[in-house]
Design brief:
Length: about 325
């Protein structure tokens, strides 16, 4: 027992020490390098993660999707319920009363009426649609004012930042369930079951979305970097950086435009006779130039693609992270 406590204290000290390094090292990092100073290394790790995903995680996620709802959903719900202690602890550290109430409410309802957390009855209308809240120590550090630090790509775990990477380590070490496993000498296989199920469930959820994004992205690495940062901002603040631009308003199919169509549209706009013909087709309302551009999807043929300045990428002058919000 004493040895476990000593090991726990050492690991906790290392995590806290890492946070202090972030704070002390921040002034030493050049302003232009704070964005992604380790981009070369990050891209190599990103490439490795993609290969690992193609040959392992993606096939596993596809197989997971083929499993019937029973037992797939109960297993996913149990894995989510097992993360409740760490989420609740971080909500308390953040003094977030709303998150504390939602986490406790979902846990008590699902444990009582959901057969020990196997069924998510708290999310149904019968129990008030209690929202699912996931708090972590990275968010707690952000609430405490710790800067996120440079962007990093973690092997297997994917996009992160120095702050969130430290938070991940703290959550892993301080999770009461993990501590109980270690105290009970439970094998590594059982201890990894929860994180593995949660990871596979998440990957299955975004199977189609990631495939579409990978095919449509001019720079998949930069796109994922932007999405991760915006998701973390939403996790921490509860809202997007730009409320006026969301996924519903910026579908992935609009990240690129067909060059041939744009040329045709410009010719139509310059030709007043053609414009008058289009506007005369609708006597109830006039059709403006912007309306023609907004409705180009209806007649869009396949053609050569060009970069329209919306996709975030550090390789292009038009890169503007604030213009891209793909997280709903």
């Amino acid at each position: 027992m004493v040895n476990y406590i000593k090991k726990f204290n050492k690991m906790l000290f290392l995590c806290i020490f890492s946070v202090s390094i972030i704070l002390s090292a921040k002034p030493c990092i050049a302003a232009e390098d704070v964005n992604d100073p380790f981009e070369k290394v990050n891209r190599n790790i990103f490439k490795f993660n993609n290969h690992l995903d193609d040959y392992f995680f993606k096939p596993v996620a596809k197989g997971w999707r083929e499993i019937p709802d029973i037992p797939r959903k109960p297993l996913s719900n149990l894995a989510t319920t097992a993360k409740t202690p760490i989420s609740l602890a971080n909500a308390i550290l953040q003094l977030n009363k709303q998150s504390i109430g939602n986490i406790l409410g979902r846990f008590l309802i699902n444990m009582t009426f959901g057969l020990g957390g196997m069924f998510d009855v708290a999310g149904t209308s019968a129990f008030g649609n209690v929202p699912e809240v996931d708090e972590d120590f990275g968010q707690t550090l952000a609430v405490w004012g710790v800067p996120d630090g440079p962007y990093v790509m973690l092997p297997i775990f994917g996009p992160s930042s120095i702050r969130d990477a430290v938070g991940l380590g703290v959550d892993t070490v301080t999770n009461p369930l993990s501590f109980a496993y270690r105290m009970s000498n439970i094998g590594l296989e059982a201890r990894l079951s929860g994180p593995v199920v949660r990871g596979v469930t998440t990957r299955e959820k975004y199977l189609d979305y990631l495939d579409e994004m990978k095919e449509g992205s001019l720079d998949f690495y930069a796109t994922m970097r932007s999405l991760y940062r915006q998701k973390r901002r939403k996790d921490i603040s509860g809202e997007l950086e730009n409320k006026d631009l969301t996924l519903s308003q910026l579908p992935l199919s609009e990240v690129y435009e067909d060059l041939d169509v744009v040329k045709d549209e410009k010719e139509n706009l310059e030709n007043s006779n053609d414009l008058n013909i289009v506007t005369s087709m609708d006597t109830s309302s006039s059709t403006s130039k912007s309306t023609l551009l907004d409705n180009k999807e209806d007649l869009k043929p396949k053609g050569s693609r060009y970069y329209n300045g919306i996709l975030p990428s550090s390789n292009y002058p038009a890169f503007s992270e604030s213009r891209v919000n793909l997280i709903e």
